[in-house]
Amino acid sequence: MTTTETEQAPGATASAVEVVRAYHLRTRHRYAAYAAGPETLDWDAQPSPFRHFEGAPRSTLPLATDDANPARPRLDQDFAALDAPLPPLPLSLHTLGALLHLSLGLTAWKSSGPDRWAVRANPSSGNLHPVEAYLVIRGLDALADGLYHYLPETHELECRARHGACSAGSAGVHVVLTSVMWREAWKYGERAFRYCQLDTGHAVGALRYAAAVLGWTLQAQPDIDGASLAALAGTDRLQDFPARRTVDTEIEEAELLLAIGCDGGDGPPLPGLGHVQWFGTASTVDRHPMYRWTAVGEVAAATRGAVQGAAPVAVVRPEVVFAACGRSVADVLLGRRSAQRFDAREVLARDAFERLLERLQPSGAMPWDALPGGWRIDLLLFVHRVENLSPGVYLLSRGRVEQGVPARLARQHDLVPVDGVAMPLYRLAAMEPMALARLARSLHCHQDIAANACLALGMLCEFEAALAASAANYRDLHRQAGLIGQVLYAEAEAMGLRGTGIGCFFDDAVHELIGLEGTAHQTLYHFTLGRAIDDARIESSPAYAQRTPAEPEPTP
Fold first, then answer.
1. In this predicted structure, what is the pLDDT of residue 359?
2. What does the alpha-carbon distance between residue 284 and residue 232 come to, in Å, rounded to a whole number?
3. CA separation (Å) from 228 to 171, 252, 257, 271?
4. Structural domains of the chain, with CATH
5. Which helix (H) or strand (E) holds 233?
6. 3-state class of 9 per DSSP?
7. What secondary structure letter does DSSP report for 235?
């Protein structure tokens, strides 16, 4: 190994870093064998995708689409309107309901024969949705100060805890995200921890877009460690999460604290909680688990420290407001879907492609500001069909080109910028379309979706440098990748296309393709984008068809 792959910053815990590195290496998919997972799945016994707390008082939330909701007119604006900060709407039950509806709520029910499933504003690996959301609320007239759990199935809040007299301060909301890791482990086995972190990043992105609709800010608070966050969310209260066989299936992993600035500025500090009164017992996730995946618990325990962020990635693109895209906020945020198949004849317009490249560059603007100071991630592109661009493998630099993956590849590739593209895009290899399709399909676990899209891409991160600072940064790397994935979903919808995240790929084969050796850089997440082919056999119905629109709030 090189020095950069083994050295650790002062204070780093060697054993935790070793656990993380060992976990990552053992959960890579290889042509010879996939990462360890279940040998069979009982779909009739799938873990419950919705959790509730028996005995916890519930409060109904207004929908963003209610005519009485002050956020409703903003849903009709062009999606590009979110590039410039909108005037902040006051914190109220209506605006809080809009935030959760647009980010974590249901957007439709789907059915095919006897099967019925929900589609949500935030995507998830396998539509398993491990992410749960809790809100620390203070100073909201409609709700007592306390901790609330969000119920996306019914769009309600349930009071998990009431907070007694606390320090004075303005009204505010903090969001705590947790993961029910067993929902992913049930299907994906040891690789589940990766997917839970990616889903957390997607949820952060979805919340940031929704906050922008309201004129609010949203930013991660990385300094809180996992134990403190678990105590805040109550997920360390094992007596409230009874298990029939093993606690692994029922517990929630505390992930991230997010501060919301409802006045358009930075969010308020987390309030003192005073006396805490707890309510409710968690519903069962899986009554009869068939497997155990101890590696997931081990890497979770090793990464519960505070995230140590890197210096902010150098901004490549200026802060600009993009031209109107012709798709509304509602079209993009409530219409987001994951494509299951792509039309192999679709050609992505060159101007749309260049707009996408610019959107993917890091900046201080929304939504990148939700996870500030992230580690660098460069993008490996498999370009199948883009107008006036030769099919082949490309590299998009997301930072200074003399650093990161571009600096490493410059030793063995002639990194010549693609003519006519303002962003730092380099062609690594030109390929015949059929050969490129075979390559993309092969690298992505033999999935046609990677070969038939307009383009597919992989996210190459600063793996060892991040671990050297803190083992907890393993979570942050995946969350940053998930945030990029959420931007890709939004931009695909804004173009009238569809995207799909891909968690199954052959890690080492991707690295070998471009000559990356060692573990200094690793690919964490892939994505594909194109024209979706819908399955006419699948029927769709409204998400909250039985809901009665909320009454208008009194004018202040």
1. 94
2. 21
3. 22, 14, 10, 14
4. 3-15+311-530 (3.40.109.10), 59-302 (3.40.109.10)
5. helix 226-233
6. coil
7. T
